[in-house]
Amino acid sequence: MAQVPPLPIGPSAGGVPQLSVETTVQQERDLAQPGVRPDEFGQAPELGFWRLSVMRFLHHRVATGALIILGVIVLSAIIVPIITGDLYRIQDYRHPFKPPFQSFQHVLGTDDLGRDEFARLLRGARVSIMVGVLAVTGYLLIGGTLGALAGYYGGWLDNALMRFTDIIISAPFLLVVIAVTAATGGVRLSTVIIVIAATGWYEIGRLMRAQFLVLREQEFVQAARALGASNTRIILRHILPNALAPIIVSATLGVSGIILLEAALGFLGYSIPPPEPSWGNMLTEFEQYLLEDKTYLVFFPATALVVTALAINLIGDGIRDALDPRQR
Amino acid sequence: MTFYVIRRLAIGVFLLFLMSAMFFTLTRITPGAPISVGENPRIHQSVIIQRLHRLGLTDEQGNSYPIPQQYVLYMGALLHGDLGDSFIYNRPVTTLLMQRLPNTILLLGTALLVALAIGIPLGIFAATHQYSKLDMTTSLVSYVGVSIPSFVLGLYLLIIFGAFLKQSPLHWGFPLFGMHSGGVDDPIDLLYHMVLPVTSLAILEIAIFSRFMRASMLEVLHQDYIRTARAKGLSIEKVNYKHALRNAILPIITLVAIAIPQIVNGAIITEGIFSWPGTGQLAFQAVVTRDYPVILGVVMLVAAGTVLFNLIADLTYAVADPRIRY
Question: Residues A16-22: what's their mean pLDDT?
Fold first, then answer.
């Protein structure tokens, strides 16, 4: 955003206000981003809101560290399974329960069927990350749209949204997801993603609604309406960019929540079926592992889960601080 | 006040109806006849029809009813305290729930009390000693605590206390699984078996309570009347614990009500992991064996409990804070 042109109303240089199409559009565009305003000295800020936020985020050492860790996990989840190929399901009958850090062949040891634990962990990381990202996209699409419409228009949609949230909140969420997964015909990963997205979007929906409720009463929206902008244009160009910050934070934290939920589902046998590994279903046989003192087979998937979830949460907090420095 | 309670109860009942309809339809449109799950070739066909009839699925001849009619029959039975029969246990769901409910209440109640007893003092101390070492540690630990789901925490505890420390010379291990055969009759043994599941359930809540308590206490401590009290010459202890605490602790009531469904959610897997014979484990097994009447029963129980607890919390709040009028 560069310099704001002089307002056409009031004592401008020309004396007569000039109302051309260009000035109206330019004005509307400036109104859409109230964060970017010239300060008292008439100087426009040098950097945009998002650029500044990225810089603030990178100054946050913990969050940056978490981002690097998550980056390593995501990259190795993408690359390593390509190299190891079918290793995750090849059963090495001569070496079941091989302890970790003993040989180069199986760095993290093997499980009860002699399958390579390291390959399985990274294959499982793919599942977790994929479910997390896709389901959050679903949250954003469903919750974002419905929340925005409910907040902007109110009425029956608003009521329906609130009642739906009441129902979901008072039911045990895990059982809800399980019942829906079972009812929609069994355990495929696509079903799990759709079910999580369809039942978990209410948090983002509520947040979006709250944002729209506040923002639709603000002067810049009234100004845009006075300038003749349509409802669609007001929602998409004026309110949405201003409502995004808390949504981004909530979506980031949502990814870790979904990863943990998927793990719980996999643990109960309601996610991707074996032999395909996920961090959840690698833990299903924990009783056997613990009783036979093969604790590393429980430790590795559990730790992978916690490290990933913690990293995502730290990144989410970093984003929150970066987007809204007043809240620290 | 009376009107408010009636209105809230009506909304609660409406929600329960809506939820039961949703879940009932979901479990009924599931592929596969319910009875086929526990298929036993030795059961006579007439017995199966009889059971299906008792579940409200078919008439006496074995012709199935349409789903809406099934639902009406189910709700009719529910109002008489009958949730149908479990496919696996072949016994009424209500009997199963009632058998296991005391164990769950014991476990969850203890976890909640422990969480309150540790989390709230911790939060108060962190707020009154802001930026001290203990404050920093509490913040850090509660941050990690929020990121670890209770079932993963349970697995960690099992690794550490169940598997590793058992081999240590001190022999510090806790029993790996379950309630001892002695059951509730031997309190010491029971306590011993409760340590790990209670810890894994309580840590998340301790993290939440202490964080919230700290924030709430800090907010109150910065208000004018606290400065006035200090200016009058009252001691720090008196100001902190008599003036500030009373106002800061109020929101905790709501938080406890919110925490209850959360704990119940965690309990489903935690009880399963620790083989604790409660409703959570019942749900855990029902989920694994796809025993829908039991799942439906647990869902309805939890939902009713949540609605009730939210109402109780709101009413308690009104009693505790005279500024609130309904």
Answer: 52
**Is there a contact between B159 and A175 if contact means CB atoms under 8 Å apart?**
no
Interface probe for B, chosen from A128, A166, A307 (most Cβ of B below 10 Å), is A166
pLDDT in tens, B271-298: 888 888 888 888 878 877 777 778 888 8
Report how far residue B211's alpha carbon sits from residue B115's, in angstroms, rounded to the nearest whole number: 12
Give, in order, the Cα–Cα distances in Å from A154 to each of A141, A160, A209, A260, A317.
19, 10, 9, 33, 31
Residue A25 in contact with partner chain B when CB distance is under 8 A? no
Phi, psi at B91, each rounded to 5°: -135, 160
For residue B118, what pLDDT band results from cuts at 50, 70 and 90? Answer: very high
Cis amide prior to A275 (ω within 30 degrees): yes
Q: Which of A295, A176, A140, A82 is nearest to B159 (CA)?
A: A295
Q: Is B159 on the interface with A (CB under 8 A)?
A: yes
Q: How much of chain A, in percent, has pLDDT values that exceed 90?
A: 22
Q: Convert A276-288 to b/e letters by CB count within 10 Å (16 or more is b).
A: bbbbbbbbbebee
Chain A nearest CA to B287, separation (Å): 7
Residues of B numbered 115-144 whose beta carbons fall under 8 angstroms of chain A's beta carbons: which are they? 143-144
Selecting from B29, B261, B273 the residue whose C-beta is nearest the C-beta of A183 gives B29
Mean pLDDT of chain A: 80
Nearest of B36, B28, B35 to residue B65 by alpha carbon: B28
Mutation for testing the B interface, residue in A62, A70, A170, A317 having most B CBs under 10 Å:
A170
Residue A198 CB contacts under 8 Å (≥ 6 apart), including other chains: A138, A142, A180
- Is it the case that residue A136 has pLDDT exceeding 90? yes
Whole-number pLDDT of residue A10: 44
Tell me which DSSP letter residue B233 carries. T
Q: Is the pLDDT of residue B88 over 80?
A: no
Q: How many Cβ atoms sit within 10 Å of the Cβ of residue B296?
A: 24
The runs of H, that is alpha helices, within chain A are: 21-31, 49-59, 61-84, 117-153, 155-170, 173-183, 189-200, 202-215, 219-226, 231-233, 240-267, 286-291, 296-323
A183 vs B27: CB contact, 8 Å cut-off?
yes
Beta bridge partners of B92: B85
For chains A and B, what is the number of CB pairs under 8 angstroms? 116
Between vectors from CA A77 to CA A73 and to CA A83, what angle results, nearest 5°? Answer: 130
**Which of B30, B158, B284 minimises the CB distance to A290?**
B158
**Residue found under tokens 């209410």:** A202
Place of tokens 């809230």: B8
Specify whether the CB–CB gap between A106 and A167 falls below 8 A. Answer: no
**Predicted pLDDT at A307:** 92
Contacts of B176 in chain A (CB under 8 A): 290-291
What count of residues does chain A have? 328
Query: Is A170 within 8 Å of B149 when comparing Cβ atoms?
Result: no
End-to-end alpha-carbon separation of chain A, Å? 27
The pLDDT of A226-245, averaged and rounded, is: 89
Q: Are A118 and A129 in contact (CB under 8 A)?
A: no
Residue A315 has pLDDT above 80, yes or no: yes
Q: A64-108, pLDDT tens digit by residue? A: 999 999 999 999 999 988 888 788 887 878 877 778 887 777 778
> Which residues from chain A sit within 8 angstroms of residue B278, using beta carbons?
none
Sign for the pseudo-dihedral over CA of A273, A274, A278, A279 = positive
The sign one gets for the Cα dihedral A247, A252, A253, A256 is: positive
